[in-house]
Design a protein that fits this description.
By secondary structure, the protein is mainly β. Helix content is 0%, strand content 51%. The chain contains no helices and 11 strands. The protein has strands at 2-6, 9-12, 17-24, 32-38, 45-51, 57-59, 67-72, 77-82, 91-98, 111-112, 116-121. The strands form 2 sheets. Strands 2, 4, 5, 6, 9, 10 and 11 form a 7-stranded mixed β-sheet that branches. A 4-stranded antiparallel β-sheet has the order 1-3-8-7, with no helix packed on it. The chain is globular and about 40 Å long. The mean pLDDT is 96.
Protein backbone atom coordinates (compact mmCIF):
# COMPACT_ATOMS: atom_id res chain seq x y z
CA UNK A 1 0.00 0.00 0.00
CA UNK A 2 1.28 3.42 -0.92
CA UNK A 3 -0.10 6.58 0.59
CA UNK A 4 0.29 10.14 -0.57
CA UNK A 5 -0.83 12.99 1.65
CA UNK A 6 -1.23 16.47 0.27
CA UNK A 7 -3.18 19.66 0.66
CA UNK A 8 -1.29 21.36 3.45
CA UNK A 9 -0.30 24.98 3.41
CA UNK A 10 -0.12 28.28 5.25
CA UNK A 11 -3.47 29.60 6.43
CA UNK A 12 -4.82 32.16 8.85
CA UNK A 13 -6.43 31.27 12.15
CA UNK A 14 -10.11 30.61 11.57
CA UNK A 15 -9.59 29.37 8.01
CA UNK A 16 -10.41 25.95 6.66
CA UNK A 17 -8.23 23.47 4.85
CA UNK A 18 -8.81 20.07 3.32
CA UNK A 19 -6.12 17.43 3.35
CA UNK A 20 -6.18 14.45 1.05
CA UNK A 21 -4.68 11.01 1.40
CA UNK A 22 -4.59 8.98 -1.80
CA UNK A 23 -4.07 5.25 -1.41
CA UNK A 24 -2.72 3.01 -4.15
CA UNK A 25 -1.41 -0.51 -4.51
CA UNK A 26 -3.07 -3.22 -2.42
CA UNK A 27 -5.89 -1.02 -1.22
CA UNK A 28 -8.07 -4.09 -0.77
CA UNK A 29 -5.83 -5.05 2.14
CA UNK A 30 -6.47 -1.83 4.08
CA UNK A 31 -8.36 -2.32 7.33
CA UNK A 32 -8.20 1.23 8.60
CA UNK A 33 -6.74 4.54 7.46
CA UNK A 34 -5.85 7.13 10.01
CA UNK A 35 -4.64 10.69 10.28
CA UNK A 36 -1.97 11.71 12.75
CA UNK A 37 -0.16 14.95 13.31
CA UNK A 38 3.11 16.03 14.81
CA UNK A 39 3.66 19.55 16.04
CA UNK A 40 7.17 20.97 16.43
CA UNK A 41 8.84 19.53 19.48
CA UNK A 42 5.95 17.22 20.29
CA UNK A 43 5.15 13.58 19.83
CA UNK A 44 2.96 12.45 17.00
CA UNK A 45 -0.69 12.37 18.05
CA UNK A 46 -3.74 10.58 16.81
CA UNK A 47 -6.44 12.59 15.02
CA UNK A 48 -8.92 10.16 13.49
CA UNK A 49 -9.08 6.72 12.00
CA UNK A 50 -11.52 5.43 9.40
CA UNK A 51 -12.63 1.85 9.06
CA UNK A 52 -11.94 1.19 5.40
CA UNK A 53 -14.69 -1.41 5.13
CA UNK A 54 -17.67 0.26 6.78
CA UNK A 55 -16.62 3.91 6.76
CA UNK A 56 -17.02 4.46 10.49
CA UNK A 57 -14.68 7.02 11.97
CA UNK A 58 -13.14 7.21 15.42
CA UNK A 59 -11.87 10.52 16.72
CA UNK A 60 -9.76 12.04 19.38
CA UNK A 61 -12.19 14.18 21.36
CA UNK A 62 -10.34 17.48 21.03
CA UNK A 63 -10.67 17.54 17.26
CA UNK A 64 -14.10 16.11 16.79
CA UNK A 65 -16.44 18.83 15.65
CA UNK A 66 -13.92 21.11 13.97
CA UNK A 67 -12.56 18.35 11.74
CA UNK A 68 -14.47 15.89 9.60
CA UNK A 69 -13.33 12.92 7.57
CA UNK A 70 -14.76 11.52 4.36
CA UNK A 71 -13.81 9.08 1.69
CA UNK A 72 -14.11 8.88 -2.09
CA UNK A 73 -14.28 5.17 -2.76
CA UNK A 74 -13.73 5.54 -6.49
CA UNK A 75 -10.51 7.44 -5.93
CA UNK A 76 -9.36 5.52 -2.85
CA UNK A 77 -8.86 8.88 -1.23
CA UNK A 78 -9.67 9.99 2.30
CA UNK A 79 -10.16 13.65 3.09
CA UNK A 80 -9.59 15.45 6.35
CA UNK A 81 -11.62 18.64 6.34
CA UNK A 82 -10.39 21.06 8.97
CA UNK A 83 -12.32 24.16 9.96
CA UNK A 84 -11.79 26.99 12.45
CA UNK A 85 -8.09 26.29 12.41
CA UNK A 86 -6.05 27.45 15.37
CA UNK A 87 -2.34 28.08 15.78
CA UNK A 88 -2.21 24.91 17.85
CA UNK A 89 -3.21 22.93 14.76
CA UNK A 90 0.15 23.75 13.18
CA UNK A 91 1.81 20.42 12.52
CA UNK A 92 2.88 17.93 9.91
CA UNK A 93 -0.15 15.80 9.14
CA UNK A 94 0.37 12.18 8.19
CA UNK A 95 -1.98 9.55 6.90
CA UNK A 96 -1.31 5.94 7.71
CA UNK A 97 -2.90 2.59 7.02
CA UNK A 98 -3.15 -0.68 8.85
CA UNK A 99 -3.95 -3.99 7.23
CA UNK A 100 -4.62 -5.89 10.44
CA UNK A 101 -6.93 -3.84 12.60
CA UNK A 102 -8.22 -0.52 13.87
CA UNK A 103 -5.85 1.27 16.20
CA UNK A 104 -5.31 4.62 17.86
CA UNK A 105 -1.62 3.93 18.40
CA UNK A 106 0.61 5.10 15.57
CA UNK A 107 3.07 2.27 16.16
CA UNK A 108 0.45 -0.16 14.95
CA UNK A 109 0.24 1.37 11.49
CA UNK A 110 2.35 -0.27 8.81
CA UNK A 111 1.98 2.08 5.86
CA UNK A 112 2.69 5.81 5.99
CA UNK A 113 2.40 8.75 3.67
CA UNK A 114 5.11 11.39 3.53
CA UNK A 115 3.28 14.03 5.57
CA UNK A 116 1.98 17.43 4.61
CA UNK A 117 2.73 20.62 6.54
CA UNK A 118 -0.09 22.73 7.91
CA UNK A 119 0.88 26.10 9.32
CA UNK A 120 -1.72 28.32 10.96
CA UNK A 121 -0.79 31.92 11.59
CA UNK A 122 -2.65 34.29 13.85
Amino acid sequence: VQLQAFGGGLVQAGDSLRLSCAASGRTDSIYTLGWFRQAPGKEREFVVTLNWRDGRSYWTDSMKGRFTVSRDNAKNTVYLQMTSLEREDTAVYYCAASDVGLFFDDTRYKFWGQGTQVTVSS
